Amino acid sequence: MGVADDNKKIMTYKEYATWEDERCEVLDGKVISMAPSPLPEHQDISMQLSIDIGTYLRGKTCKVFAAPIDIYLFEDSHEKWIDENVRNWVIPDLIVVCDPNKIRRSKILGAPDLVVEIISPSSAKIDRMDKRLAYQQSGVKEYWIIDPANQIAEVYLLKKRLLQLHNVYNREQHIPVHIFEEFTIDLGGVFPNREEI
């Protein structure tokens, strides 16, 4: 099965689960993205962040997950839910989840603590607007938008129920992971040198 023919049709996770070899993200029952396979630069950045965060989290309760993993943003791990009622799910590039009750066999239930999206020209608008708003409404505490083209990281923090831009970091800086104390990541080790691309 392929992409829904009518974008006005309300999509549920139950229907999506019948698709073969296709990924999509859905907010309010509407498909917001059908991403092609990521570029090597995107994957390299994701891998570097996964290694840095995963190494820090080794032996701790919080877990890091890299795409693809489905996130039911508004489903509570303590409530009963069924796939046919789920109309909001995303597949971020990287997440950190600190509540083990949210981690299920095939998905994450509820907002991750940290979400990282690595943008491309085709995904920038959705990641900066639609998904940021969904992450805000679901209670994501920290949201990073990684921009490989400009080698910057935008960091948004949840304050008074709003994901507000906290700072923008470049490849010469260390980015603090605000959900943890005293943990920073050297962006020089995350972004590839331009000569390597």
From TrEMBL:
Domain Putative restriction endonuclease span(s) in chain numbering: 15-187
**Which Gene3D superfamilies does this entry report, sorted A to Z?**
tt1808, chain A (3.90.1570.10)
- The answer to whether the entry has keyword Nuclease is yes
One GO MF annotation is: endonuclease activity
Hydrolase keyword on record: yes
- Write out the entry's keywords from A to Z: Endonuclease, Hydrolase, Nuclease
**The protein's name in its UniProt record:** Uma2 family endonuclease
**Taxonomic lineage of this organism?**
Bacteria, Bacillati, Bacillota, Bacilli, Bacillales
